[in-house]
Amino acid sequence: MSDVPGLVVTGASGRMGQTLIRLSQGSDRLRLVGCVERAGHPWIGRDVGEAMGGTPVGVKVTDDALEAFAKAQAVVDFTAPAATVEFAALAAQARACHVIGTTGLEAEHLAKIEAASRHAVIVRAGNMSLGVNLLVRVAEKVAAALDADWDVEIVEAHHRMKVDAPSGTALMLGAAVAAGRGVSLEDTKVSGRDGITGARAKGAIGFSAIRGGDIVGEHDVIFAGEGERVILRHVATDRALFARGALRAALWGQGQKPGQYDMMDVLGI
Of 162, 189, 219, 234, which residue is the catalytic one? Predict the structure, then answer.
């Protein structure tokens, strides 16, 4: 048996799924051993390479996640909250490192993921990019340096197909700003203003979401003071950067103790 960790990609037909599959084919540090899709999907039973419009790669798409995970040391998952919770339990059962890039997770989902992390390694992040994770750290430090007289707005833009808002990355940034100020994001978050909203509350952390075209991901953290603004920005032009980060996390997770980690742990920052 190969010493190279086996990889399963969930949501194989999605944008990120296909990107992960392509990148894994060019890797000598991970080997693709499984691809998972929902029951009834037209790719089920087909070689994933052919399903993607290319040549066979010797891996068929399945809807049996547990069977696929049993052959793997790592699972990379950019799907939907309900599916991710199910995959977390199955990956823990298989003792495979579960890398979660799924966004839109709520408290009930997070509690179940935390329970699964008692038995296996889970790396979860709203964004797998090195640049974004550095931006998160910088945003926290800037927020700590500027008091609540500086208004904070987080503006994010994504492609028309994204189903959740604010983005997971925007929420990461908001949480970093709140941590820097020593407050709770839940208590200060303001989203989707519309109509006669009244004056802005002091200390509020505002969020705005733009959806359109094929925008990969853009995030601005705006600190607006009297007579000046500080704007922190990250622009992603290729979603492969998120896939590369996820594969790096899958490798990092090999040999780690069970628990829940994030990209700060993976990157050592």
Answer: 162
